Amino acid sequence: MATSKTQARAADSRPWAALCFIGLAQLMIVLDGTVVNIALPSLQRDLEISDGDRQWILTAYTLAFGSLLLLGGRIADYTGRKRAFLIGLLGFTGASALGGVADSFDVLLVARALQGGFAALLGPSALSLLTVTFTQPKDRAKAFGVWGGVTAAGGAIGLLAGGALTDYLNWRWCLFINIPIALVAAVGGYAMLAESRRGGRARFDVPGVLLVTSGLVAIVYGTSRAESDGWRSGAVIGLLAVGAVLLAAFAFVESRVPQPLMPLRVIASRTRGSAYLAVGLAMVGMFGAFLFLTYYMQVVRGYSPIRTGVAFLPMTLAVLLSAGGLATRLLPKVPPRALIVPGMVLLSCGMLWLLTMETDTAYAEGVLVSGLMLGTGAGMIMPAALNYATHGVDQDDAGVASAGVNTAQQIGSSLGTALLNTIAASATADYLASHAAQGPSPALAKRAVLEGFETAGTWAAGIMLTGALIVAVLMNTPRPKSRPASGDTPSAEPPADTQRTEPLPEHS
């Protein structure tokens, strides 16, 4: 009897042990999106990278990650999610080691692209493993609370780690730090995770892969070019137009092929579609905030990299408390929009708080207040949105549905950062031009930078509020434990434990 109880306790604890290693992998992916940012000036000087080329250290990762996510999700579905998880971790480890020893711009660029490619395999396999491991609503809510907290806080943790590693060691450790994290996650994942895969013979949608990859590359590359060339540039407009056409062609192809890369049924649900939108817009707000607050503290206020990282700690704590405490407790009890919509409103308020800040505003009155609102809002959004982005999806499609969430995160952060940075830079230039008669001065330069952040922050707040309105109208999902009434729309999905488990028919 005692042996049986011990075995039962071990079986009950195994999923939570697995969650630790899955979450560690997710932390590494999100952290790597920001940890290099603070180190970029040191890295640029060390490798003698030009101002025109430095952006590629960031966008090489973004391009590879964002454009290959859907393919990575399908590979995970067919070849095994645990296998894809472990391969992704080991590949990410090798790419990080290559970047850490890079002695030239070209080698570092290749390493960053490889990091993005392996992250595109690792991200969806990690989230799909979480989806198939936790199926009971209460446990699922707790697991996604942890996942949402890791996802939302990872960016701020990356800024802190980047500042500390750059100040006390050197920029190379911003890449080397991934090696022990990935190895621990790989060893633990090998021991604790159970394999799951889609049944049947693996057949990949090659036209879909080419169309979606080309379309996302064009859009992300066009957006990155806008930072230097401007949104009215012919090259930028052409790239964005080509990207839109390719993605439209991708949607058409997916409705015709027998085994699509992204089954349209996955995103046609009002619940999942709204969740994808919420995740993408949350990343717009959070990465825009990281950008503006980082430059405000270092350029306007004169903070060091490590002090800047420490200043983000309250935001990180707010994310963890909001996601792990508030959202986790409410997620099994309330409709998802009851968390997502207020969270997006809080993000808007955090961005609008920039309007109250001056060049000499004290930390407690400016950055701290804005960070607490941003962190609390993100912590409310991410667990609910990530949970319902894979809610009710057939287990065979868990990998590709998870890839869709990661794509929304990556594209949201990339497009949002480029868009808001371009708006900020334009507003700063206009302010300097309109005050040219005063003559150049440090005070004027700081005020111009802040003017750009305030303008872009207002745009970001408007985007967040528009998204909140769309989610409030579109996401009509009921409380998790309540069944839809007979008059409800068909898209109001039943709770996860009552979902159908038989495979849904493929589009023909």
Give the topology.
Blueprint: H1 2-32, H2 35-47, H3 56-79, H4 81-100, H5 105-133, H6 137-168, H7 173-176, H8 178-192, H9 206-229, H10 234-254, H11 264-268, H12 270-300, H13 305-311, H14 313-330, H15 337-352, H16 367-389, H17 398-434, H18 442-474
Helix pairs in contact: 1-5, 1-6, 1-8, 2-6, 3-4, 3-5, 3-9, 3-17, 4-5, 4-8, 5-17, 6-12, 6-13, 6-14, 6-16, 9-10, 9-17, 12-15, 12-16, 12-17, 12-18, 14-16, 15-16, 15-18, 17-18
Main beta sheet: strand number and arrangement?
none
Uncertain residue segments? 1-11, 482-508
Average pLDDT works out at 78
Which band does the percent of strand residues land in?
under 5%
Helix and strand pattern: HHHHHHHHHHHHHHHHHH
Kindly report the CATH topology of the largest domain.
Answer: Growth Hormone, Chain: A
DSSP summary, beta strand count: 0
Helix content: over 70%
How many discrete domains?
A: 2
| Helical/strand content category | mainly alpha
Continuous helix count: 18
Cα gyration radius (Å)? 22 Å
Membrane topology: Multi-pass membrane protein
Protein name: MFS transporter
Organism: Streptomyces oryzae
Region (Disordered): 478-508
Task: Describe the overall structure.
This protein has 508 residues and is an all-alpha fold. It folds into 2 domains: 13-194 and 261-481 and 491-497, Growth Hormone, Chain: A (Up-down Bundle); 205-260. Helix content is 75%, strand content 0%. It has 18 helices and no strands. The chain has helices spanning 2-32, 35-47, 56-79, 81-100, 105-133, 137-168, 173-176, 178-192, 206-229, 234-254, 264-268, 270-300, 305-311, 313-330, 337-352, 367-389, 398-434, 442-474. Helix 12 runs antiparallel to helix 16 (367-389). The radius of gyration is 22 Å and the shape is globular. The termini are far apart. Residues 1-11 and 482-508 have low confidence and may be disordered. It comes from Streptomyces oryzae. Residues 18-479 form the Major facilitator superfamily (MFS) profile domain.
